[in-house]
Prior knowledge:
By secondary structure, the chain is mainly alpha-helical. It is built from 4 helices and 3 strands. The chain has helices spanning about 15-25, 30-35, 60-80, 90-95, and strands at about 15, 50, 55-60. It has a 3-stranded antiparallel beta sheet with strand order 1-3-2.
Amino acid sequence: MHLQNNMLEGQLQTVQTIAKQRLGKRLAPSTAWRWxxxxxxxxxxxxxxxxxxxxxxTTIEAFDQFLSDQTAAAFKEEQKSDSPSQxxxxxxxxxxxx
Length: 98
């Protein structure tokens, strides 16, 4: 994973701490691991983090960027599914609408 240069310049906190601050709830360890290692949106979006002593650390800026990237990807997917080109007569018939 390539870290942005400013990752090491920011104030590092555990992923759990930042998630609790930003999301208002405790994050399951498996969720944090998945966001960092596998990513979301088919692996295209990953949380930038550093591991030290068995714990994962990130910055508030990296966490916020991760959330923003997820939101942008969700809107792109939504726009793709709403496009008229994907709603042709054959697909409407297949779904029992025509």
